[in-house]
Design brief:
Elements (H helix, E strand, L loop, with lengths): L12 H29 L7 H28 L2 H15 L20 H30 L13 H23 L2 H28 L7 H13 L2 H26 L6 H18 L4 H25 L6 H25 L7 H26 L5 H11 L10 H23 L7 H15 L6 H22 L2 E7 L2 E11 L5 E9 L2 E7 L17 H8 L8 E5 L15 E6 L2 H7 L7 H5 L4 E4 L2 H5 L7 E6 L14 H10 E10 L7 H11 L3 E7 L11 E7 L2 H9 L6 E2 L22
Parallel strand pairs: 5-6, 5-8, 6-7, 8-9
Antiparallel strand pairs: 1-2, 2-3, 3-4, 9-11, 10-11, 10-12
């Protein structure tokens, strides 16, 4: 591809600075708004990672509409009319300022909230986000017409746009979120939006005043002729090169967010790498970097497949995460590098960006609207890894013997694996041998790196055989996917007190265990794991056993329903759960019988617990238990001062609040301690570790709170466990609905 500069009239750096600053500001506003508004919406939907993915679909859809508008505006109207129309659109968008949620915003509790979420986003930020999304293609198109020396190839300005996006994303968790509350964030964003509009107006003025002559009829004819030269195959290639990284981004985000706190912090990492790839490939260094990325991708793919899919248990979580991020980065660098390498003449600039945005929207829609209904796990992620390998340069599709062999060999491997899987009952006895064989095959695929079809399909066959092997080894009885994640019921074996093998059931959300139950009739009503009788919950119920006969108890977070087996006949239990699928599983005696045996009359409330509790009468509960997990995280909106104040409004004067805070990644006790101190609450903590090896009794951390210390005094003085006063912390400010800082509580 070559670009021939047109006649130019300017070499002024101030023009580059103005247009680059406009693109930088626009992109910064766009990518601050995404985590900002995601954080506003998370409390309404229990902190689910799916909220972020749904928001991403909205952003990608509006981005596509913005690019479509820019394409139509710049190709159908002259400069003056473009300026007039765009000015009118900007003025209308001011109606949405300042940023705020629509009044009386409450998500549905009896259906999937995806469409409600999209509609809420449209009402709240649709207009300003639309204007921001039009800026990248429109401003670059205007720059191509102002007669600057570099107007013939304005694509380098796209690097300025993505640099703004990158800086905004990294600034949010480490600069904006820790220092500025949500209310001020919304106000500052509105001020920044007004500044952007002034910069757009300045660019429009430059365009209007530029001395470059208007397109002649001959130039228009050349443009139309050249449009016909833009083949369907080229456009389809652009589409695939942009679609696969978009879907891969959301797939990876969903994959890693299952085990980390559902806040913007971790979600930003894949998106940062995604944007960084754009910055690099649209810079002047892409011609040297792209061939290097193509060569390095297969090298990093080998350990990724070997340890991330075939044998992940051998690595700590952080190394596991790094492998996924590296594989993702190389995949998007190769795809986006091909995209930048094949960028068109400026006549097709808006067409190019329009197809890119359309592909991004399609990728997001596939992950949000198709994959959850087609797959019962996050299978779209490995599928897109394979698709990215198919898009490596060198793909040739004329049907011949070489192509046939590239297809037949992976197919035979997959068929052989399925036959062995179906016919060998003792397959798991040879797990290590099979894993080593798959790793050896992965190494051999390196020889196919110059043949994209064979390379992709062989790696795909290995990945799906590995997934099948792990599915078989996990003894999964049931697996289903909801808006809130992937839930699985698995059968496992323990050695009982007599040294005999005994089967039991486990509930998993992602890779985190949410409960277990022994199946023998005389053992099935014993609470296990985090809720065991030797543990903090067992101690609490035993210590208050003499005066809790008529207690009213609320439990936020159902899990397998183990806590219900502390219920007494005269007590009134209400169970709060945001995910209807969890209720279905816990209520099914084929999987877990805690509810049916111990609390068949317990009331069930489906929806976000904090919203549900607001409708309960004040001073209603004697005991309120907070166990609202989303895999290994606790939604941050359940930890704020306002949340604690709400809980104690619903508790009787001598009521007790118990908070489950077991977490691999976050030190939740810091938040609870500081907020308890701010609200003058009495609090005790127990970081429980079993004294001896008891089946399915695990280490777990709990905090109990009350308005008066005397309420908790029996527990503190009991010999049932080691309850201690909460330590005091002075290195962070209290969390509120307006302010949370996840960085400050990382372990």
């Amino acid at each position: 591809m070559s670009h021939h500069p047109d006649a130019t009239t300017h070499r002024n750096l101030s023009l580059i600075f103005l247009f680059a600053a406009t693109l930088f500001t626009s992109a910064s506003l766009m990518f601050v708004l995404q985590p900002l508004f995601g954080k506003i919406l998370l409390p309404l939907l229990g902190g689910s990672p799916a909220v972020w993915n749904t928001c991403m679909v909205f952003y990608q859809s509006i981005l596509f509409l913005g690019y479509l508008y820019a394409h139509y505006l710049s190709t159908r109207y002259n400069r003056l009319r473009q300026i007039q129309i765009h000015s009118a659109v900007i003025l209308i968008s001011f109606l949405a300022l300042p940023l705020a949620l629509p009044e009386n915003t409450v998500p549905p509790t009896d259906s999937n909230p995806t469409f409600w979420l999209l509609w809420t986003l449209f009402l709240a930020i649709g207009l300003p986000f639309f204007v921001v999304s039009t800026t990248a293609p429109l401003i670059q198109k205007w720059f191509a017409q102002v007669g600057h020396a570099t107007s013939h190839d304005p694509y380098y300005l796209y690097a300025a746009s993505n640099t703004g996006s990158l800086i905004a994303l990294l600034s949010y968790p480490f600069l904006l979120e820790p220092n500025i509350g949500l209310a001020n964030q919304k106000s500052y964003w509105s001020v920044g939006y007004v500044l952007l509009c002034l910069l757009i107006a300045s660019c429009a003025f430059i365009l209007w005043k530029s001395r470059q002559s208007a397109e002649t009829a001959q130039e228009r004819a050349e443009s139309i002729t050249d449009e016909h030269k833009l083949s369907l195959g080229t456009q389809l290639h652009w589409l695939l090169l942009a679609l696969v990284p978009s879907s891969l981004l959301l797939g990876l985000t969903n994959f890693i967010s299952t085990d980390i706190a559902s806040v913007p912090l971790l979600w930003i990492i894949p998106l940062t790498l995604y944007l960084l790839s754009f910055v690099i490939v649209f810079s002047k260094w892409n011609d040297k970097i792209h061939p290097l990325m193509v060569k390095l991708q297969p090298v990093f793919l080998l350990p990724f497949i070997a340890y991330a899919f075939i044998n992940p248990a051998d690595l700590p979580y952080w190394a596991y995460l790094i492998l996924h991020l590296l594989a993702f980065f190389f995949a998007v660098m190769v795809c986006h590098g091909e995209l930048a390498h094949n960028r068109p003449h400026t006549r097709h600039l808006t067409t190019f960006y329009l197809i890119m945005s359309f592909a991004g929207m399609l990728g997001g829609m596939f992950n949000t609207f198709v994959a959850p209904f087609v797959f019962n796990a996050v299978y779209e992620y490995p599928i897109m890894i394979i698709a990215a390998l198919l898009l490596r340069p060198g793909l040739k599709l004329p049907f011949n013997r070489g192509l046939l062999l590239q297809i037949i060999l992976p197919a035979l491997l997959l068929i052989a694996g399925l036959i062995i899987h179906a016919g060998a009952d003792d397959l798991l006895q040879h797990f290590d041998l099979i894993a080593l064989s798959l790793i050896a095959l992965t190494c051999l695929t390196f020889l196919l790196r110059a043949r994209p079809v064979g390379f992709a399909l062989m790696n795909g066959a290995i990945i799906f055989l590995a997934l099948g092997l792990h599915g078989l080894s996990s003894h999964t009885l049931y697996q289903e996917r909801s808006f809130f994640g992937v839930l699985a019921v698995r059968e496992a074996v323990l050695t009982d007190e007599q040294g005999q093998p005994e089967h039991y059931h486990e509930l998993f959300h992602g890779t985190t265990k949410h409960g277990a139950q022994r199946l023998a009739a005389h053992l099935s009503q014993i609470p296990l794991t985090y809720y065991s009788r030797p543990g903090p919950m067992g101690q609490l119920f035993k210590e208050y056993d003499n005066n809790n006969q008529n207690w009213t108890i609320g439990v936020v977070g159902l899990g397998a329903g183990a806590l219900a087996c502390y219920a007494k006949e005269a007590q009134h239990w209400t169970l709060y759960e945001i995910d209807p699928l969890v209720v279905d599983i816990a209520s099914n005696p084929a999987y877990f019988s805690y509810l049916s045996q111990c609390a068949p009359n317990a009331a069930m409330r489906i929806g976000d617990a904090r919203l549900s509790l607001e409708h309960e009468a004040d001073q209603h509960f004697d005991l309120l238990i907070m166990d609202a997990f989303s895999s290994d995280s606790v939604p941050t909106h359940l930890l704020t001062k306002e949340a604690l104040a709400l809980y104690f409004n619903k508790l009787k004067p001598n009521g007790i609040l118990a908070f489950h805070m077991t977490n691999r990644h976050l030190s939740l006790k810091k938040v609870l301690s500081i907020n308890a101190e701010a609200l003058h609450l009495a609090s005790l903590i127990q970081e429980f570790k079993p004294e001896r090896d008891i089946p399915l009794v695990v280490s777990t951390d709990w905090v109990v709170m009350a308005k008066q210390p005397k309420t908790l005094e029996p527990l503190r003085l009991s010999r049932l466990g080691s309850w201690q006063k909460m330590p005091l912390y002075f290195d962070m400010q209290p969390w509120t609905d307006d302010f949370t800082n996840i960085v400050s509580i990382w372990k």
